[in-house]
Amino acid sequence: MSAPGRLFSRERILSNVWGASEDPLTNVVDVYIRRLRAKIDEGHARPLIHTVRGLGYRLEAPA
């Protein structure tokens, strides 16, 4: 939220939130991004959380 527009890789999110000991092949980041989308994007015409395929996730500031 403090860096809108900045791209964060799955690996970076995983290590910053769950620690470096977590398995990088886990889908825990994907699961929590999906849960966040259900809460944050609900009722908005444009989604705030964007996936950049193969790179990671980006939070866009609302227009």
Walk me through the structure.
By secondary structure, the protein is of the alpha+beta class. The protein has a single domain, classed as Arc Repressor Mutant, subunit A, CATH 1.10.10. The chain has two helices and three strands, in the order E-H-H-E-E. It has a three-stranded antiparallel β-sheet with strand order 1-3-2. A hairpin with a 3-residue loop joins strand 2 and strand 3. One of its GO terms (molecular function) is DNA binding. This is DNA-binding response OmpR family regulator. Pfam families: Trans_reg_C.
Can you describe this structure in just a few lines?
The chain has 2 helices and 3 strands; from the N terminus they run βααββ. The protein is α+β, with helices and mostly antiparallel strands and 63 residues long. The chain has a single domain, classed as Winged helix-like DNA-binding domain superfamily/Winged helix DNA-binding domain (Arc Repressor Mutant, subunit A), CATH 1.10.10.10.
